[in-house]
Structures are given as C-alpha cells and as structure tokens.
Task: structure prediction
Amino acid sequence: MNHPLPHREVTLPAYYQHRVLFLDPAEIYARISVQPFARHQKPEHVGLKVMFPKRSDRICSCGCGTPLGPRRSRWASDDCAAFAADIYAIIYGQRDTIKYYLKHYNGYKCKCGRVRKMKVDHIIPVKHGGGGCWLSNYQFLCHACHVEKTKVDFGWKGK
Ligand SMILES: [Zn+2]
Ligand SMILES: [Zn+2]
Result:
C-alpha cells in the first residue's frame, strides 16, 4: 500500500512537490516505525529527525545529494526542508497536505463522477492497518460513496 505513485503529467508550482508526489517512500518507511492502526502518527516514531537523519558528511538530509552551504546544518535549501516537511505531513496523516497532492494527481473527483463534498479516504482503512500510509493508500470519495465504503470497511454490510 506504500508503493510509489505511477508517473503521470501533473502541474505543481514547485519542483520539490514533484519530488514528493513521485517519491518511492520505501527508504523512508524502512527508517521509521509507523503505527498502522493509528490515524495520526507520533512524531517520536515518524519525526523529521527519524525520517531524514543528519549526515556526518555535510550532505543534505533530504536525499538530493547537495553539499550543505556554510550556514546550513540539515537542509541544503528551503525547498529541501519543504520537501521533507510535506513527506512528514503525509505520513503523519495531515489532511490538507494529502488533499493537496491528491488533487493534483487525481483531480478533485470521486470514482462515481461526483465532484462535491469530497472526503479523503484510506483505501485500506486505519481499522485494518492502513494508518501512517503513503499517498498511494488515499483516494477522494464523495459523501455518498464514503458512507457506502465505510459500511463495508466496518463490516456493517457484506462486500
Ligand atoms: Zn536536499
Ligand atoms: Zn462517489
């Protein structure tokens, strides 16, 4: 469920956002301990310092490979810091950031075609271990489809 999103043409204002959207999160997930049954993660398990440890060779912690400038201690640029912060926000479970990337990737619409009252849905629900997931486990659902899916997810209705 934490696989990278397949590449497609998207328009995002900043280059670092393209890096976020098409990141292969495997390396980051290998460093952190996600609580899959929690909707929001604890910073001590998935914090920036755990996700992007400081390096002794003075190379940026974000993974871009750029050497740190004289007044830099972790990130080579503000974009590197913003890249890391968005990845943290996604894995933490911060709605607005997830919504922002989903909108650019999938468009703001439900699979049924409705475009109003969209909810951010965990495809594999948190109840079944989908917490702390990557963008690939999220989708937009309209209110009606979300109610239907929740019934199935929670076993209130047969599949
Ligand atoms: Zn960097
Ligand atoms: Zn729908």
